[in-house]
Write a structure and sequence with these properties.
The chain has 330 residues and is α/β, with parallel strands linked by helices. The chain has a single domain, classed as Ureohydrolase domain (Arginase, Chain A, 3-Layer(aba) Sandwich), CATH 3.40.800.10. It is 33% helix and 16% strand. The protein contains 9 helices and 8 strands. An 8-stranded parallel beta sheet has the order 2-1-3-8-7-4-5-6, with helices on both faces. Helix 5 links the parallel strand 4 and strand 5. The radius of gyration is 18 Å and the shape is globular. The two termini are 23 Å apart. The protein binds manganese (II) ion. Pfam families: Arginase. One of its GO terms (molecular function) is agmatinase activity. Its cofactor is Mn(2+). Belongs to the arginase family. Agmatinase subfamily.
């Protein structure tokens, strides 16, 4: 079975520093019906309000993803033995036109969604999650596990501009794409524009686990709360690398000190096993602020962590669907 599925380049035959860099050294896939999980780049940072550069994220994450191997060392999950996974390339973008980019990204992800594949994406700034939601959540809202230093639920910037990387989840709630009652934000911290910055999110019903609360209750209790909030419904995972302390991930546009460690973040992603996961992304890796490449390595590693839990969830749903067609559900 496994031999029929796309596999990463064999590091025993082709050394990790050789070859054309794709996500996880997987084959490039042009026919979207050939994959169950589509690894996608979204090289766009037109929603960035401060330090730009995340448009270069997908290329560097692809490069550093050559460090990933085939099997998860804790869970034992071997994603490439479960499902067809491939690198479907980058969403088309327009670096000088925000609205055109949102349209093009949505269109690309709609094609992936219609083909029946689940997207795991590398941004790009955090606004890219909005057109992804417009593509994959238009039939029913999704819940979300959201790692971030910022709630990204502000209203407008620079006058009345509704689309920045500080606003995607307010728009997603307004558009009925994101169910706020099934949304949990982890790691929120840092100074705010005004004391009422989080009022919209709280009033909408989003569960905010501020960094200070996370530091108090720890990984296990946070995971319990995550499970309580998102339940069994379709759930998306969005991982902004600025959720991490900048000593682990300095290469990002809006760093905030006092953040999550890489190990804590990995433990939390591993703890999402068994949820009804329908996609995910890693955003805000900004290579111009990442001279060592470490933030891109962190991004690639979190993408692999996501891939493992999402592949397992998707494969289990498939098995259930094939045994009990009445319960088939995307
Ligand atoms: Mn964010």
């Amino acid at each position: 079975m496994a031999s029929n599925l796309p596999q990463p380049l064999d590091a025993g035959l082709v050394p990790r520093f050789a070859g054309i860099p794709t996500f996880m050294r997987l084959p490039t896939v042009t026919n979207l019906t050939d994959v169950d999980i589509a690894l996608v780049g979204v090289p766009w940072d037109g929603g960035t309000t401060n330090r730009a550069g995340a448009r270069h994220g997908p290329r560097e994450i692809r490069n550093m993803s050559s460090f990933m191997r085939r099997v998860h060392h804790v869970s034992g999950i071997a994603p490439y033995d479960l499902l067809r996974v491939g690198d479907v390339g980058d969403a088309p973008v327009n670096p000088i036109d925000l609205l055109d980019s949102l349209r093009q990204i949505e269109q690309f992800f709609s094609t992936i969604h219609r083909a029946g594949a689940i997207p795991i994406s590398a941004g790009g700034d955090h606004l890219v999650t909005l057109p992804i939601f417009r593509a994959i959540a238009k039939d029913r809202p999704v819940g979300m596990v959201h790692f971030d230093a910022h709630s990204d639920t502000n209203d407008t910037y620079f006058g009345d501009n509704p689309y920045t990387h500080g606003t995607p989840f307010r728009r997603a709630v307004e558009e009925g794409l994101l169910d706020p009652h099934r949304t949990v934000q982890i790691g929120i911290r840092g100074s705010v524009y005004s004391a009422d910055d989080l009022d919209f999110a709280k009033a909408a019903g989003i569960r905010i686990i501020q960094m200070e609360e996370f530091a108090d209750i720890g990984v296990a209790a946070t995971l319990e709360e995550v499970r309580r909030v998102v339940g069994t419904g379709p759930t998306y995972v969005s991982f902004d690398v600025d959720a991490l302390d900048p000593c682990f991930a300095p290469g990002t546009g809006t760093p905030e000190i006092g953040g999550i460690t890489t190990l804590e973040a990995q433990q939390m992603l591993r703890g999402l096993r068994g949820l009804h996961l329908v996609g995910g992304d890693v955003v805000e890796v900004s290579p111009p602020f990442d001279p060592s490449g470490n933030t891109a390595l962190v991004g690639a590693t979190m993408m692999f962590e996501l891939l493992c839990v999402i592949a397992e969830a998707h494969a289990q749903r498939r098995t259930i669907a094939s045994e009990q067609p009445a319960f088939a559900e995307n």
